[in-house]
Every structure is written in structure tokens, then in C-alpha cells.
Amino acid sequence: MKTLKHALLATLAVLATPAAAQQPAVTVAIDTARPGPVIDRNVFGQFAEHLGTGIYGGVWVGKDSPIPNVRGIRSDVVTALKALKVPNVRWPGGCFADEYHWRDGIGPVEKRRVQVNSNWGGVPESNAFGTHEFMDFAEQIGADAYVSVNIGSGTAAEAAQWIEYITAEKDTSLAKERAANGHPAPWKVPILGLGNENWGCGGAMSADHYVEEMKRFSNFTRNFNPAQREKDKMKRIAVGWDGDKLDYTEQVMKAWSTHVYSWDIEGVSLHNYTTGGWPPHLPATGFGNDEYAIVIGETLKMDSLLARQSAIMDKYDPEKKLLIAVDEWGAWLSPTPGSNPGFLQQQNSMRDGILAALNLNIFARHADRVKIANIAQMINVLQAMILTDGGKMVLTPTYHVFRMYVPFQDAQVAPVRFDAGELAVGERKLPRVDAIAAKDKSGQVWVSLVNVDPDAGTSVTIPGFRSASGDVLTAPRVDSVNTFDAPSLVAPRAISGKASASGVTIALPPRSVTVVKVSK
Ligand code: AHR
After folding, report:
1. Ligand 1 mean position to 124 CA, how many Å?
2. 291 Cβ below 6 A of ligand 1
3. C-alpha closest to that of 284 among 461, 58, 80, 481
């Protein structure tokens, strides 16, 4: 009797839950016969600055910590990051990079200079996490090092010696010093940042001034690792555009187009945060559809920013020899109430997951130029993958999207055609659905489908395919988050498609990101 009553109550509860509204079905045609450029795995890169608890607490807990660690680097975070196959980590900043002096972060920890982190909260920076610790972290998670040198307050000689210290093989004083500090073998530096935001926190330089500095740093900062001499050569990234700082990209490209033999670059950066207005004031939680639409609408501008930066670069480099590195991107919202505002700590909702997927799709559509990108930032800062509190750790919706997108790393774009129309959210119009497809090295085709609609489900039919299986990420609300107490509210679940005469059909829940492999 009791069981019958429970079953009845459960049925009534289901009937009382309003079914999600349905939007019309969408057809997504994939053109596998016309392969596009490769989606460079480096666009799934991360950014870890000495900022708030991004490094201290988030990555580094110290060798004597009760939190399980390997040589001071927390093991739970390493395990979680390994699943993302993180291709590269940009370090030590950010604005911090232009106040960083590498010698402060090597040698016995107790002798390292304690400085003030003047950009981020004015807190003491112990330099306990320096070059050796960063390289160890990168190796533990299997990522390449993207090292940004200090053009703002450092010298070209300092930068040159730092990269020599990291990469020189043997028999030089700096290689011997590195060996004496515990690492005889040279490390690789596959990506080198020539400064950071030198129009702002990196020294407020005019574009002309920056170009002259950048040329000297490019000239003298040499990579001596024999394994990077012929292949895997270090890519040097000059500072480019942010917001209206178009002159940087223009002047850098102009200088490069007539450069002499002694200096060169392989890419130009672009920074773009989604803020909903400056200074950042939109809450990271407790918002509704209007604020969802403001953020999603703004983030889609990444597409036109990339088109504009590409157009400038095309003028000087029509063969697309240089790449764009979107080496800071993501949502910058108001800080978690009660946290140090200088620590840029914010929660991460289903909206962030959708924002991440839309930006990754834009990078795929610009794969001919965009070959490096670094979401800001990796742990505990801005749009983070992971949040920690002491020994606790939680994976964010953005983490899950990055995990779901792993098959797109180094996959070749397969052009898609679809017309899902627009969606009105309050006064704003958003695309209803977004999609990309790509073929991985084994020939498997992968599709990402984003249902931007906060309230209504839809379905996508892919003609010419018979099966689809993968993961879907959705949540009860657009502002749903994972917390230390409820870590799996926003977590992927398995999804598969249904075959019919018209192809394979996948049902997309409202506010969702779906990644499936499709087969004929
Ligand atoms: O990611 C936070 C800060 O944003 C970086 O330090 C800086 O480069 C940018 O302005």
C-alpha cells in the first residue's frame, strides 16, 4: 500500500513539473568531404597567474601540507587537470609577469625574496612557487610551458638569462646553477610571451615604444634546448589587441613585415574578457535570463574581434604565417561576496559552461589563425576550471566543457551548415543553437551542439549519420553552480541519438552543451 502511495506521489510530482518547452527541430549538415583547418590543441590552453589563490592554495600547498601532494603540488588538482589534456599553461602572469624577477623564485625556499603582489590584493608573495615548481607542475599535468617574460619592469638581459637558465643543455654557468638547484636536464619552453598588456599594467607603453622593446627582447631571448632547434621551435608571442588597443596589432605587424634577420615572432596576442560592462559588476550567481542574455550576447563578440584582428594581420601576412594567441579570455564577474576583491574569485555557473563552449566554437571557426588560447584562469580565479578551499576541491561547469571538448584537440574542422534562427531573451537576440564538427586523427567525426535557449529544448538531426553518442551538460537553471556541498549539480551525463530515415537525431535539453561522436 505504502509503495503504491509513493508511486502515485512520484507520478503526480512528474506531472506537476512543467515539461520544458520545445523549439522547432534543427538540421545540422556536416561536410566531411571538405576538411577545414586543424583545431590546434593549444587553443585549449590555461592561464595560471600569481593572483589570489590561483597558485598558492590552488596548485601549491607545500611539501609539508596535510593535503596530499607531490613535491608540494596538490595531487587532486593534478589528477583532475590530467583528464583535460591541458596543452599549455601560461605563467607567471598576467600583470604579475611584468613585476616578476625570476631569480626571486629559484634556490632554497627560505632564502627567496618575499615581495608584495602589488597588482593583486597587495598580499605577500613568497616566491615559493618559482621556475622549478612551475616546470614540475606543467610536467605533472602533461602540459607545455608558456612563459611570459617581463618587459614592463625587467631587462632584456634578465629575460635572456631566464630562458637560458631553463633551456641551456650543459657547461654554462646558468645550466650548472639549474643543475645545482635540482634539475640537470634542460626544460623545453614551447611558447614565450614577449610581455603582457604593455599598453596598461605592463608599463603603459605606446605601441611604437612597445615594438622597439619587443624587438630587443625577441632578439636576445634565445632558446638553447637542442630538442627545440629543428622542430618544436619556440613560438614567440607579441602583445596585440585588447578592446580598442588596435594600434598594438597594427604596429607589431607592420614592424614584423619588414623585420631584419635578428628578431622574429610567431604570433600576436588578443585579450578579451566578457564582463557585461567595466568595472565587472554582474553577479556570478543568482541571476536570471536577462543577465544570462547580456553575458552570452557579449561573449559572441569574440567572433568579430577575431575577424578584425585577422584582417589587420592579413594586410601584412596574407599567407597566415603568424598566429593569434587569445591568451586571456573568459568571464570576469563581480567577486564572490566576502572574498578579497583583489583575488578575482568568482563562482562558475551553467552560463559559464555555455560561454566556454561558444568561445571554443568561435576559435574552431577561426582555426586558420587562432592557434593558441588561454582561458583566464585555471584555478580559483575568474572563469576557473577548479575551485578549492583548503583540502576541498570542486570541478566547475567550465571544467566539464573542457573535458567534453578533448576530442577536438588537433581534430580537423568539418564545415557545418545549419539555420536555427534567433531567440529573443528580453530585449536581446541570441542564436538559438550553435554547432561545430571535426574529424579526429582516427577519422572519427565529433560534433558539439550548444542549445543557447535558457528555457526550451530542441532537437538536432544530422543527415547521413546513423548513430551518435557522447555527453550532455545541462543544469536546473542557467545560474546553477557546483559547490563543495553539492559538487555534481552540473555534471555531464551520457546521451545518444536515434536513427531515422533522415539521419541521427539528438534531443538537446534547454541551456545545454552536447558533444557526441557520430558514425554512418
Ligand atoms: O587575468 C587577470 C588580469 O587581466 C591579468 O593579469 C591581466 O593581463 C589582465 O588585465
Report:
1. 19
2. no
3. 481
